[in-house]
Every structure is written in C-alpha cells, then in structure tokens.
# Entry
Amino acid sequence: MPEFTHLDAAGNPTMVDVGNKPVTRRTACAQAMVHLPPAVLAKLSGGEITVPKGAVFQTAILAGILAAKKTGDLIPLCHPLGLDNCKIEIRLTDQNLVRVECEAVCTGKTGVEMEALTGASIAALTIYDMCKSFSPEIIIQNICLLEKTGGKKDFKRV
# Structure
C-alpha cells in the first residue's frame, strides 16, 4: 500500500528528498471546467468575454501561467520549480462549459502536476472573478490531472 510521501516516520510534515532522483523531462496536463450561466454566455462574442477589467480569457491565461510559476510559494512542501514551459488553453465546449487546460513542462527531479493543477485552477478562478458581476451562478468543477510523464510512472486519464 502506498505511503504518504510528505510525512516522516513520526508523522510530521516533510518535503520529499529528491536529491538522488534523476533529472528527466517532466510534463503534466490538468483541467478545470467552468460552467457559465446564460447571463454570462450572453456576453461571449468572437470567442471572448470582455468586461471593464479587460478580456476575460486572455487575463485568465496570464493569471494561470503566473500561478503555475508560483506553485512552490502557494502549496506547502511543494518544491519550487523552474518551468521550461507553461501553456493555458481556454475553449468553450458544446455543453456551454469553458474548458481550461494547463500544460506545464520542466526538466528536473520532481513532477509538475501541482503546477499544472494550480495553473488550471487559478485561470478558472480568474474567469469567475471577472464574470461574477453578471451572475453568481458560475460553477468551477472537475479540476483534475489529465496526464503526466517523466517520473516513476506515467499517467493518462481515460
């Protein structure tokens, strides 16, 4: 049975020692889904929502990338990583959901799952923040890891 990697033998919080791990290319892709009610969808024009604060999706992309870069400062015991790349894609699905996808890449000794999850989450929260004046019924859901490569074992959500 797997053990919690962030607890020492006495049950105290600890960082995982990655000193002896090999440096490999690590990738992770995560998503967050944002359900937009009709009042917000009515503001969608040309694939973007524009509010007094600016272009919603473009701002969310920037916020997500910035958050992914700061993950080590936000999540306790998370190793600070120098990302090689981070991309956020935002698109409307046919079910009137906004799919926020974040891909994070680094060359290092530990994975970038938390960076991808943080990027997708903060981009989704930015959409919420910028559109909440139109409706409080926005729902952020299904934040999850879709895929990761480069560590002990690869993962792909089916």
Notes: The mean pLDDT is 93.
